[in-house]
Specification:
InterPro entries (chain C): APP-BP1, ThiF/MoeB/HesA, ThiF_NAD_FAD-bd, Ubiquitin-activating_enz
Order of helices and strands of chain B: HHEHEHEHEHEEHHHHHEEEHEEHEE
Low-confidence stretches of chain C: none
Organism (chain C): Clavelina lepadiformis
Largest sheet of chain C: 8 strands, mixed
Low-confidence stretches of chain B: 1-22
CATH superfamily of the largest domain in chain C: NAD(P)-binding Rossmann-like Domain
Shape of chain B: globular
Shape of chain C: elongated
Number of strands of chain B: 13
Strand order of the largest sheet of chain B: 3-2-1-4-5-6-7-8
CATH class of the largest domain in chain C: Alpha Beta
Protein name (chain C): NEDD8-activating enzyme E1 regulatory subunit
Keywords (chain C): Ubl conjugation pathway
Helix content of chain B: 25-40%
Family (chain C): Belongs to the ubiquitin-activating E1 family. ULA1 subfamily.
Chains: A alpha+beta, B alpha/beta, C alpha/beta
Number of helices of chain B: 13
Oligomer: heterotrimer
CATH topology of the largest domain in chain C: Rossmann fold
Largest sheet of chain B: 8 strands, mixed
Chain lengths: ~180, ~450, ~525
């Protein structure tokens, strides 16, 4: 053990008034970690990130343009919000493109386990992006957010494919209108 | 060994009537703690030298910061002022709520709505003569290093992991190292941290740079429970799932109070959510949605009782008393407590992580001229034999705002920051003493560099 | 009322409205105003006990006012009991408080009945004959008695409770009561309607693990002449069998079926045989259960009924708990299953109710006075019933328990050593008429005096040699502290003590048995059955 301060030591006022570092905010652990995550980002070629403000690394977009599967040719934008609790808490992700997808609802909520119940601090931004990309390759009808889409995917794959195509071209699927989102 | 005896204390256990009433130090006031401060003891810290000066230090010089004026904070202020500490600052951004009164004993019914820090300070200063508790009704993030530097010890009674991690990072950033990379121990500000949940609690000591810090042991704090989105949406089984459904989907859709976001303290909001959740529960045959449960889910309420808060705050206070006086060796270094089944404690040494993102690194100082270009700095990082980085990404903070200097891996940022490469460090707004965060594949964590700018220097560490 | 619900919200989530009701109807007595004592009361007044009475004859001095938050330096010379009562009453307008400016020994002499109306009595810094007499009084009258003190960095707490019966012990991690090893009729009937093979993919992956395990256990039992998987190897094989049920896609690759993953994970705990826990069995064999009389309390009546239920039931098991943990499933199947468990629990509870009323009649006790709500709570907690009985203080002082002897003769000195030192301090007090280390001139020479007391104590325990095991360092620390009350140590003990009292009042959670030592030097503690 060490002796931390001697009794002679007065209030640390002289220290406080000395080398002033006022205004210089220190890096938070979340920032240190996020900088590392982003610097090491290795995206599949179907994904790109956009930083509306390159100085703000906490808020950015992910754009996915799948080159295989049902969603080939589409272009889908997700917003990422990384909080100060990162990586103790998962980033908040929403889909900004209206999409006909069993695991994404029409409000943009995304059902991906690592974003909620299975988040762990060892996971990275990279893991989340791969998770989202996987949803487009393998939409999962078992645990749906968009129940109608899931129903059709598990009962009539052809119909599902047609619905996806119709939605991406811009048009109605049932009573819901989808904006065009082809690349 | 017993110099303290010259300074003779008159014990006045029986003789009370003739006591002269001094405003601050009435006769016998500090008798209890003077015994352990002025007598030697085998279990004291090896450096302990019993002396009346120690009490003087506590009373007149030692400055403490208490973060949080809630369940733990109220107890801490009482314990610390009654063990001789007078100069205490307390920060809390919250106001008093009715549900605080079952444990936050410095508050009364008519204090509801007032600032916790202010009411707590006023109460203590009034009750404990000579106490000079200074309230700060704000967030800890509102102050910078110059504020935190002034304290000898920081004591936390927080309910937020984010806030704990923030102050942990702040205290680590205050560490100073000499040219050989040795820690200047006078720059260490110990952090004593307590936390409770129902009948469970923990108390710990963090000596920044020397012992395990918050980030070293982040695993000890489990992430909050989140239900799978699809369970909430389509296969609810528990009352909590129904409440979450209304929170995640129903509120946005129905906008019962216009654009207002959910306010867990607004009974009308909770009532509406509870009603909608009940409807959903009925639809699925789920029992158990009540107002109390709804509020618990929405506010993520953690149960709290007076007794556990008292225990944990007391354990923390004893450690502060020992740290400041050396009259006992500090605990090593983490205690967990649970008194649901009997009373259980377990004290162990949380281990410092060699790869901790926050405390494993000593910030390295690098010297450049203000006219040097950012490109030169990056070349230095890649070419220096100790670093040999491959593709460093660099961020920093200028005028309180974060700034990305360069990052190659992300095309959009690379495009936006490429022009920075040929700018001078001065033109980029960097000043001497600037902290640079550098991430690279060659190290497991981001590194912190302190940039020193002067006309004489060429690049060197 | 709504106001009270909000004020106590954070604790109601722990001990419920019925726990709160017990608190609000309790009457607590504190003997002697010390910081430990007032901190304990503070933590009882805040959550809302009914009322308290403080007994103390002494007057506030400078020393007390310096270390006790509920004594005022401006009131030096005034009654401690009065000053503390007034300041404590500010904490909660719902709580009533009184004080009696009289010495406890005196009340014991002149009006011992005074003490018999309390729910719990707490005494601080009480020594010698008065302590023994007071403890004996409560022991005879079955009133829980708590004695505690802070001594420098050491805290001491002792519960003296002839009998304390707990229905809701709130175990932290208990096995679920699923009965997969001995499924009841209704569970079988439902599970048998389900044909996993005939299900579509979605249904298959949304069937609760309880059903999956039931199905494969049936299959296993069929192949193993009715036996369950018991050994580690068998369980491993059984897990394999369960996994073989996972659907495969066209390429033969197993699908992702979370419910099956869950089933495999739950195999070990689900295969723990259902039984009456040992602690409950012991309660069944308690003389209090075997000989019910008209004097028997509700608790023992219910235990009597429960015992009869168990011995009359085919499988000799307790009533089904009726709770179903959350598990991966669609809503429909989960809720159906939940209703089956709850329905069976209700059936069992009704049977238990019948048995209770039978034993009540048999023992001459008023019939039907136990409410349905109480019986329901009792049945739901049948696996977790506890009866705690400590030794009397008298018997502790007549002969020390084996556990304390063992701790003195073991290689590693535990915090139990502080108990022995506190006993030596008590001896010191009775020989010298003061506590060791009280004044600066003598504190160092007190070390030897205290050592003599320690030696005498250990000799009376027939282990004089143990004095060698206790280093002089401990003695010196005791004299150094000289019975001072360091506020934070007192506050720690006030926290621990108050919660033990809450346990006694609410009959929820499990109190210590019987002594607790806190070591503020190291921030460690130990519970010892002395």
């Amino acid at each position: 053990m060490i002796k931390l301060f001697s009794l002679k030591q007065q209030k640390k006022e002289e220290l406080a008034s000395g080398t002033s570092s006022a205004g210089k905010r220190k890096a938070t652990a979340a920032q240190l970690r996020l900088t590392k995550d982003l610097n090491e980002l290795q995206l599949p070629k179907t994904c790109i990130t956009e930083f509306p403000d390159p100085n703000d690394l906490l808020n950015f977009k992910l754009i996915i343009t799948p080159d295989e599967g049902y969603y080939r040719g589409g272009k889908f934008t997700f917003s990422f919000k990384v909080g100060l609790g990162y990586p103790h808490e998962a980033p908040k992700v929403k889909c900004e493109t209206m999409v006909y997808h069993p695991n994404i609802d029409l409000e943009g909520n995304v059902c991906l386990n690592i974003l909620r119940e299975d988040w762990k601090p060892v996971l990275t931004i990279n893991s989340v992006i791969y998770g989202i990309q996987y949803l487009f390759l393998e939409p999962n009808p078992e645990d749906p957010l968009n129940k109608e889409a899931a129903e059709i995917l598990s009962t009539n794959k052809r119909q599902f494919e047609q619905n996806v195509n119709r939605s991406m071209k811009g048009g109605y699927v049932g009573s819901v209108y989808f904006e065009r989102c082809l690349k | 060994m017993l110099q303290g005896l010259d300074y003779c204390l008159k014990m006045e256990v029986d003789n009370v009537v003739s006591t002269v009433r001094e405003p601050l130090n009435w006769s016998g006031r500090w008798n209890h703690i003077q015994k352990v401060l002025e007598r030697s003891g085998p279990f004291a810290h090896p450096d302990f030298e019993p002396s009346p000066d120690i009490l003087g230090f506590l009373l007149n010089n030692c400055k403490l910061l208490v973060i949080g004026a809630g369940g733990l904070g109220c107890e801490l202020l009482k314990n610390l002022t009654l063990t001789g500490f007078r100069h205490i600052d307390v920060i809390d951004m919250d106001t008093i709520d009715l549900s605080n009164l079952n444990r936050q004993f410095l508050f009364r019914q008519n204090d509801i709505g007032k600032a916790k820090a202010t009411v707590a300070s006023d109460f203590i200063n009034n009750r404990v003569k000579g106490a000079e508790v200074v309230p700060h009704f704000c967030k800890i993030q509102d102050y910078d290093a110059s504020f935190y530097k002034q304290f000898h010890i920081v004591v936390c009674g927080l309910d937020s992991i984010v806030a704990r991690r923030w102050i942990n990072g702040m205290l680590i950033s205050l560490l100073e190292y000499d040219e050989d990379g040795n820690l200047d121990q006078t720059s260490v500000i110990p952090m004593v941290d307590g936390g409770t949940e129902g009948f469970k609690g923990n108390a710990r000591i963090i000596l920044p740079g020397l012992s395990a810090c918050m980030e070293c042991t982040l695993d000890l704090y489990p992430p909050q429970v989140n239900f799978p989105m699809c369970t909430i949406a389509h296969t609810p089984r528990q009352p909590e799932h129904c409440v979450e459904y209304v929170k995640v989907f129903g509120w946005e859709k129905e906008k019962p109070f216009g654009d207002a976001p959910i306010d867990g303290d607004n009974p009308e909001h909770i009532k509406w959510i509870c009603g909608s959740a009940c409807e959903r529960a009925e639809q699925f045959g789920i029992q158990g949605v009540t107002y109390r449960l709804t509020q618990g889910v929405i506010k993520r309420i953690i149960p709290a009782v007076a007794s556990t808060n008292a225990v944990i705050a007391a354990a923390c206070s004893t450690e502060v008393f020992k740290l400041a006086s050396s009259c006992g060796a500090p605990m090593n270094n983490y205690m967990v407590f649970n008194d649901a089944d009997g009373v259980y404690t377990y004290t162990f040494e949380a281990e410092k992580s060699e790869t901790c993102v926050a405390c494993s690194q000593k910030p390295k100082t690098i010297h450049f001229k203000p006219t040097s270009q950012l490109r030169e700095l990056i070349e230095f990082l890649c070419q220096d034999s100790m670093l040999q980085m491959k593709s460093p990404g660099i961020t920093t903070t200028v005028n309180g705002n974060s700034k990305t200097l360069f990052m190659k891996s992300i095309p959009s940022i690379e495009r936006a920051t490429r022009p920075n490469l040929s700018k001078s460090l001065a033109d980029l707004g960097l000043s001497s003493g600037q902290e640079l965060i550098v991430a690279d594949v060659t190290t497991p964590n981001s590194l912190i560099f302190i940039l020193k700018l002067s006309d004489q220097c060429s690049a060197e560490t | 009322m709504a106001n009270k619900q909000n004020k106590y919200d954070r604790q109601l989530r722990l001990w419920g409205d019925h726990g709160q009701w017990c608190l609000e109807n309790s009457k607590i007595c504190l003997v002697n105003v010390t910081a430990t004592g007032t901190e304990t009361l503070k933590n009882l007044i805040l959550p809302g006990i009914g009322s308290f009475v403080i007994v103390d004859k002494s007057r506030v001095n400078g020393e007390d006012a310096g270390s006790n938050f509920f004594l005022d330096p401006n009131a030096i010379g005034e009654s401690k009991a009065k000053v503390a009562t007034n300041l404590l009453l500010e904490l909660n307008p719902e709580v009533k408080g009184e004080y009696i400016e009289e010495d406890v020994a005196n009340i014991l002499e002149t009006n011992p009945h005074f003490f018999l109306s309390f729910t719990v009595v707490i005494a601080c810094n009480l020594y010698g004959e008065t302590l023994q007499k007071l403890a004996a009084l409560f022991w005879c009258n079955n009133i829980p008695f708590v004695t505690c003190k802070s001594f420098g960095f050491i805290g001491y707490l002792r519960l003296v409770i002839p009998e304390h019966c707990i229905i809701e012990s709130h175990p932290d991690n208990s096995h679920e009561d699923l009965r997969l090893d001995c499924p009841f009729e209704e569970l079988c009937a439902y599970a048998d309607t389900i044909d996993l093979d005939a299900m579509d993919k979605k249904d298959h992956s949304h069937t609760p693990y309880v059903i999956i395990l039931y199905k494969y256990l049936m299959e296993w039992k069929k192949a193993h002449s009715g036996a369950m998987p018991k050994t580690w190897k068998e369980k491993k094989e059984f897990k394999k069998l369960v996994m073989s049920g996972i659907r495969k896609n066209a390429d033969g690759v197993p699908e992702d079926e979370e419910n099956f993953d869950e089933a495999v994970k739950q195999v070990n705990s689900a295969l723990v045989p259902s039984c009456v826990p040992e602690k409950v069995q012991k309660i069944f064999n308690d003389p209090k259960c075997l000989q019910l009389t008209e004097e028997s309390t509700d608790f023992w009546m219910m235990v009597g009924g429960l015992r009869q239920f168990v011995s009359n039931s085919e499988n000799g098991l307790l009533p089904l708990r009726g709770s179903l943990p959350d598990m991966f499933s669609d809503s429909d199947k989960y809720i159906k299953l939940q209703n089956i468990y709850q329905g069976k629990a209700k059936q069992d509870m009704e049977a238990v109710t019948g048995h209770i009323s039978q034993v009540c009649t048999k023992s001459g006790c008023g019939n039907g006075k136990i409410s349905e709500k109480d019986i329901k709570r009792f049945c739901r907690n049948a696996h977790f019933l506890r009866v705690v009985r400590t030794r009397s203080l008298q018997s502790e002082y007549e002969s020390p328990s084996k556990s304390i002897m063992d701790s003195l003769t073991s290689d590693e000195i535990s915090d139990a050593v502080w108990y022995v030192l506190l006993r030596a301090v008590e001896r010191f007090q009775s020989t010298n008429g003061r506590l060791p280390g009280m004044n600066n001139a003598e504190w160092e020479s007190d070390v030897n005096r205290l050592k003599n007391c320690l030696y005498d104590l250990l000799k009376s325990w027939d282990i004089p040699g143990a004095v060698e095991a206790i280093s002089d360092d401990f003695l010196q620390e005791m004299c150094r502290c000289g019975s001072s009350e360091i506020h934070s140590v007192a506050s720690y003990m006030g926290g621990v003590t108050s919660h033990e009292v809450v346990k006694l009042i609410t009959a929820q959670y499990i109190p210590i048995c019987n002594s607790y030592i806190y070591n503020g030097y190291k921030s460690t503690s130990v519970t010892i059955d002395i």
